[in-house]
């Protein structure tokens, strides 16, 4: 079963460009992971400091491999001082229907 989640965080005032650069570099690495099916980064139109990342992994094993990737820790360490939350807020999603 696919592992799907939404990661959310808000860049601190003045840190939006640095957060966008960090997440852009990180996204390039995540998208190369064998089990990654989607890693789509958005900002909220009405609040451009609010970042939303829609992530899909092939299965739980692929998600665990993502969590254990060597670049994840350094990314999170660089991100945390730039965002309002203590860490990304993760919401795990279950599908109601699947696309063909």
Can you describe this structure in just a few lines?
The protein has helices at 16-30, 60-67, 72-79, and strands at 3-10, 36-44, 47-57, 89-93. It is of the alpha+beta class and 100 residues long.
Could you explain the architecture of this structure?
This protein is of the alpha+beta class and 100 residues long. The protein is 31% helix and 33% strand. The protein contains three helices and four strands. A four-stranded antiparallel beta sheet has the order 2-3-1-4. The radius of gyration is 14 Å and the shape is globular. The relative contact order is 0.29.
| Rg calc | 14 Å
Order of helices and strands: EHEEHHE
Uncertain runs:
none
Mean pLDDT, nearest integer? 96
Multimeric status of the protein = single chain
In terms of DSSP E residues, the strand content is: 25-35%
Secondary structure class reads alpha+beta
Distance between the termini: 15 Å
Topology at a glance:
Layout: E1 3-10, H1 16-30, E2 36-44, E3 47-57, H2 60-67, H3 72-79, E4 89-93
Antiparallel strand pairs: 1-3, 1-4, 2-3
Helix pairs in contact: 1-3
Keywords summarizing the entry:
alpha+beta, globular, 4-stranded antiparallel sheet, 3 helices
């Amino acid at each position: 079963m696919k592992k799907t989640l939404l990661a959310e965080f808000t860049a601190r005032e003045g840190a939006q460009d640095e957060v966008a650069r960090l997440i852009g570099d990180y996204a390039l690495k995540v998208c190369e992971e064998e089990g990654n099916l989607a890693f789509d980064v958005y900002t909220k139109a009405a609040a451009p400091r609010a970042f939303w990342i829609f992530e899909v992994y092939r299965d739980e094993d692929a998600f665990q491999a993502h969590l254990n990737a060597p670049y994840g820790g350094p990314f999170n360490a660089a991100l945390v001082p730039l965002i309002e939350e203590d860490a990304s807020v993760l919401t795990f999603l279950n599908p109601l229907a699947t696309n063909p």
